[in-house]
């Protein structure tokens, strides 16, 4: 991989943390019919609920195929902005741009190469074109990365530390020519990262090949929320325990040991023979709020109690997410934050 002479980090750009102030949230209207297996109506209702929950705190723009714009407007109401453009799918965390900001507060977008989650969906060209279209709409610079990455595969503390999994970022179906050292260098060049904390695997049967946004995330610098499986017979138990051990031994970019707060996963559920990637880690920061998934499970309330304790300054909004997870992802997967331009106060 030959990076351009001026990478985003070389120009002073870095990825802010997701809890930094947002100018807007981006989503994309469900459109891949076979993915939802006859439950497209339920999926669209679920996306609309998430959009409404976020819109109570910040502007939301919904990407939508032109021929579906009228139907989306009817379901979403007047409070959600629409942007019509070609789409293959509706996972904005992965197909949208990752936004970066420089010390002067100027915003730019990164256009990662997108290959349909390791070639699982050959029809992904429209999705691969989303980041430059959004950047053009916003009138900001767009950096075209020379390697494959999805937004759900990374999480940063905004202070130089990034969480990811070996299962995804070192998977040969993404970037077969890049080893661990080269990937760390790429993340430094493109996101301003000084320390990568490598977890092992994501959730069992997760089609994303182990996106980190289902297993661990920063709540603030030095504090990580981590999914655990308490049942030793569960196929997620050992991999999640291994991730917990790695977090316990890790140091962040400032040299600090991490405080790790475990959150127990909900009970296993399957659809069409595949285990659903149910996770309370897959929540979304909105301005002044946390939009949290619930699954009609006894583990819902303990998870919500933990999130309320960790984020006492934010309103906790619980949104039913089973109809989203049926498509393979969660609330975090269908959203992408656009940081506010300008210096942080």
Textual characterization of the structure:
- Strands 3-2-1-18 form a 4-stranded mixed β-sheet. The chain has a 3-stranded mixed β-sheet with strand order 4-5-6, covered by helices on one side. The protein has a 3-stranded mixed β-sheet with strand order 7-8-9, sandwiched between helices.
- The model has no long low-confidence stretch (mean pLDDT 97).
- The chain is globular, with a radius of gyration of 19 Å.
- The longest helix is centred in the N-terminal third of the chain and has 16 residues, at 40-55.
- The protein is built from 12 helices and 18 strands.
- Helices cover 27% and strands 25% of the residues.
- The chain is of the alpha/beta class and 345 residues long.
- It has helices at 33-36, 40-55, 69-76, 92-95, 116-119, 125-128, 130-138, 166-169, 180-191, 237-249, 300-310, 322-325; strands at 22-28, 60-64, 81-84, 98-101, 107-113, 141-148, 155-156, 161-165, 195-199, 216-220, 223-228, 259-264, 270-271, 274-275, 284-286, 289-294, 315-320, 336-339.
- It starts with 21 loop residues before the first strand and ends in a 6-residue tail after the last strand.
- The chain has one domain (22-339): L-arginine/glycine Amidinotransferase, Chain A.
């Amino acid at each position: 991989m030959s990076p351009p002479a001026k990478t985003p980090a070389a120009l002073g750009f870095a990825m802010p943390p997701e809890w930094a102030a947002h100018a807007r949230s981006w989503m994309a209207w469900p459109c891949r019919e076979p993915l939802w297996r006859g439950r497209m109506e339920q999926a669209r209702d679920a996306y609309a609920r998430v959009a409404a929950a976020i819109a109570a705190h910040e502007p939301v723009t919904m990407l939508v195929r032109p021929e579906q714009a009228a139907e989306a407007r009817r379901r979403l109401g007047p409070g959600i902005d629409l942007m019509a453009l070609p789409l293959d799918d509706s996972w904005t965390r992965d197909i949208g741009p990752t936004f970066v900001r420089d010390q002067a507060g100027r915003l730019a977008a990164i256009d990662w190469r997108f290959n349909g989650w390791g070639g699982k969906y050959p029809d992904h060209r429209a999705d691969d074109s989303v980041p430059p279209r959004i950047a053009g709409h916003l009138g900001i610079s767009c950096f075209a990365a020379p390697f494959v990455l999805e937004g759900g595969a990374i999480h940063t503390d905004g202070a130089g530390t990034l969480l990811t999994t070996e299962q995804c970022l070192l998977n040969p179906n993404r970037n077969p020519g890049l080893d661990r050292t080269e990937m760390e260098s790429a993340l430094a060049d493109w996101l301003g990262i000084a320390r990568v904390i490598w977890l092992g695997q994501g959730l069992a049967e997760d089609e994303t090949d182990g996106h980190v946004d289902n297993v661990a995330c920063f709540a603030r610098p030095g504090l990580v929320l981590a999914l655990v499986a308490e049942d030793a017979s569960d196929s997620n138990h050992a991999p999640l325990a291994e991730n917990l051990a790695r977090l316990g031994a890790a140091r962040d970019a400032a040299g600090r040991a991490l405080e790790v707060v475990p959150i127990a996963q909900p009970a296993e559920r399957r659809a069409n023979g595949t285990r659903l990637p149910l996770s309370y880690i897959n929540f979304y920061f909105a301005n002044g709020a946390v939009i949290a998934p619930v699954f009609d499970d006894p583990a819902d309330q303990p998870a919500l109690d933990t999130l309320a304790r960790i984020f006492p300054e934010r309103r906790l909004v619980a949104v039913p997410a089973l109809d989203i997870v049926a498509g393979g992802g969660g609330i975090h997967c269908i959203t992408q934050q656009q940081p506010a331009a300008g210096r942080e106060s």
